[in-house]
Backbone:
């Protein structure tokens, strides 16, 4: 931790948990040329971007099992308002692809960014693909790890990895492909900074008919355990696997997600702001050399709106 603490603390300690000062806009981009684009994406996208003139880092965000990208719009808007372009592909709809196909699709979207992203942005906004973050939630959090580990090749390099309550399957005998967990500490062959955000209620079972949404041995604890430094582990004690989604994700699948996972008893806003704030602080520390917020949260997790367990952090 000494190396990170030695970096200049250029930011205040709590503003990351509030919406940022930058105005933003959201845009859906389809796979056809209906919008006039000469380079349509390989998958439908939700792009959330600042509108203020400037150059901004890019985040590729992978959604969870059976979820829609717009279910995350409030979380992604929070992050974007602090100066980040978020690209969230809809990797599948009603029939999930195989794990390997999902990762290949994410890789194709990554490769598309070089030629296809800039024309989709406001005229005065520039994407900085030299600062490219990879992020995901649930099954998408596991897919983000797999992509970072090289299970599909990409022309661009990722600078950091953020995984939100990653899940590798419903039971150890029913894991999603590829089987990236080794159950050997610090075994992931990753050389980029990683932050894992978990939930305290994810391992709890909602009812006798469905397994926990984030079972023990397949969830954030094991993913963090296999990360090499620098890596950080935050756990929101009183919140569940879906509590970083919008307050009212519409549609049958959104309603189903609330039926199969244990949720926190309070409003979701503190959880969303905590996840968004930790994400922003992490990105600022490792993409922009502004470590003040991240160091402050590591030292005092009570700064977050949601109650956090003691933070685990391993520096190089």
Residues:
């Amino acid at each position: 931790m000494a190396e990170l603490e030695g970096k200049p603390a250029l930011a205040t300690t709590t503003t990351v948990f509030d919406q940022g000062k930058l105005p933003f806009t959201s845009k859906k981009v389809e796979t056809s040329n209906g919008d006039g684009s000469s380079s349509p994406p390989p998958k439908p996208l939700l792009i959330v971007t600042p509108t203020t003139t400037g150059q901004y880092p890019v985040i590729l965000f992978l959604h969870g099992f059976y979820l829609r990208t717009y279910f995350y719009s409030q979380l992604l808007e929070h992050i974007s308002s602090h100066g980040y372009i978020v690209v969230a592909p809809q990797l599948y709809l009603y029939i999930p692809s195989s794990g390997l196909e999902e990762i290949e699709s994410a890789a194709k979207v990554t490769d598309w960014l070089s030629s296809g992203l800039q024309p989709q942005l406001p005229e005065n906004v520039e994407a900085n693909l030299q600062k490219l973050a990879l992020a995901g939630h649930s099954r998408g959090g596991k897919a983000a790890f797999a992509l970072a580990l090289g299970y599909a090749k990409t022309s661009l390099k990722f600078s950091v990895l953020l995984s939100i309550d990653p899940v590798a399957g419903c039971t150890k005998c029913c894991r999603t492909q590829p089987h990236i967990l080794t159950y050997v500490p610090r075994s992931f062959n990753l050389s980029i900074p990683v932050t894992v955000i978990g939930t305290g209620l994810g391992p709890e079972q909602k009812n006798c008919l469905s397994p926990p949404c984030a079972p023990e041995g397949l969830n954030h604890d094991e993913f963090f355990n296999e990360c090499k430094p620098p890596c950080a582990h935050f756990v929101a004690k009183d919140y569940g696997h879906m509590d970083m989604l919008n307050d009212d994700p519409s549609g049958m699948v959104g309603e189903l997600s609330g039926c199969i996972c244990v949720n926190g008893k309070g409003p979701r806003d503190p959880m969303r702001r905590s996840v968004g704030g930790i994400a922003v602080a992490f990105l600022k520390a490792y993409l922009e050399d502004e470590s003040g917020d991240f160091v402050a949260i590591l030292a005092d997790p009570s700064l977050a709106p949601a109650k956090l367990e003691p933070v685990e952090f391993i520096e190089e």
In short: The helical segments are 2-5, 73-80, 99-117, 139-148, 220-225, 252-260, 269-287, 292-299.
